[in-house]
Amino acid sequence: MKVLLTGGTGYIGSHTAIELIKLGYEVEIMDNLFNSKITVLDKIEEITGVKPKFYKVDLLDKEGMDKMFGEGGYDLVIHFAGLKAVGESVEKPLKYYENNVGGTINLLECMKKHGVNKIVFSSSATVYGDQGVAELTEEMQTGVGITNPYGETKHVIEEILKDVAEAEPDFEATILRYFNPVGAHPSGLIGEDPNDIPNNLMPIIMKVSTGEIEKLKVYGDDYDTPDGTGIRDYIHVVDLAKGHVAAIEKMKPGVSIYNLGTGKGTSVLEMVAAFEKASGKKLPYEIVGRRAGDLAEIFANPSKAEKELDWKTELTIEDAMNDTINYLEHLAKK
Ligand code: WQD
């Protein structure tokens, strides 16, 4: 099977490319390199022995996508490409709707023109908004109480995929709702390496540990949680990548939706402690006020993916911290 990964040089995409290549899939990558580096292709080759064909194409470049699909002969698309900075999306909503929603419409039109009817979409737990409960399941209503345009774009794209599936009986879409991806490939050759200023906890912890950022600001310790700090479901990126492989092996007509998470919650201070244990050194942090839009506690109920995709997470927070530190050590040697 020949698979196109949009955004495939990014954090999740590159790890997914590796898992697919290891299983014999033919993988090609499209990326605009806005938030990733082309050197990732060499790392994928170093790990797998295969350097995926690469197209430097933007989701808004209809001609470039048309040319790529004309040459590609893809069986399926995994759609990772998109802007994902929550804070920036609040400041620049039109940029996010144009790129994420408009770009996905361009992609879907190109797929239809070239007879590609299968897509796996990189969605996010953000689409759940505030359900009033911590444990999230796929049948919950989405799109209510989403606190940022980034999350809204993910929700709108999910709705677009459902409507396309209604209109086209042979269309097959699998929506994967990620919780909080963390960790790095055990080789230490690839990991989370954003070009932009990170918003998420782990890349910030990484930059605090290297000294690029002075200290971690812990956004509130007055939540109704055991240690007062926010709780999330942190999933190792390799487990997440394997979830994509499991998804494409079980494609079917219509829209299938799955949570990809561990099913367990971990607090900010527990993440700090886990990083300190793995690194053997203290991580400077300061408790500050809550971040607008944050919820106290969110974690996945992953039982649907376990049952229908025969997939569940195998790696732990400790694995993620050890792999992150291994990756940082490789970066430092460059
Ligand atoms: C995690 C916890 C913060 C930074 C977001 C997106 C979601 C998905 C994952 C893409 C929270 C705390 C964080 C910091 C902190 N992204 N924190 N200090 O908000 O759960 O989800 O990223 O799909 O769509 O919404 O992730 O890593 O930003 O925060 O205390 O400097 O860490 O309050 O409790 P979040 P996060």
Key words describing this protein structure:
334 residues, two-stranded parallel ribbon, globular, alpha/beta, binds UDP-4-deoxy-4-formamido-beta-L-arabinopyranose, 7-stranded parallel sheet, 40% helix
What spatial order of strands do you see in the largest sheet? Answer: 3-2-1-4-5-7-12
Main sheet summary: 7 strands, parallel
Helix/strand order: EHEHEHEHHEEHEEHEEEHEEHEEHH
Supply the helix-strand structural class. alpha/beta
* Associated small molecules: UDP-4-deoxy-4-formamido-beta-L-arabinopyranose
Low-confidence stretches: none
Share in β-strands? 15-25%
Number of DSSP helical runs? 11
Helicity, as a percent range: 40-55%
Rg result: 19 Å
Terminal CA distance reads: 35 Å
- Overall spatial form: globular
Number of strands: 15
* Average pLDDT score: 97
Description:
The protein is an alpha/beta fold and 334 residues long. It has 11 helices and 15 strands. It has a 7-stranded parallel beta sheet with strand order 3-2-1-4-5-7-12, sandwiched between helices. The protein has a two-stranded parallel ribbon with strand order 6-15. A two-stranded parallel sheet has the order 8-11. Helix 1 (11-22) crosses helix 8, helix 3 (62-72) runs parallel beside helix 5 (93-113) and helix 9 packs across helix 11. The chain starts with a strand and ends with a helix. It binds UDP-4-deoxy-4-formamido-beta-L-arabinopyranose.
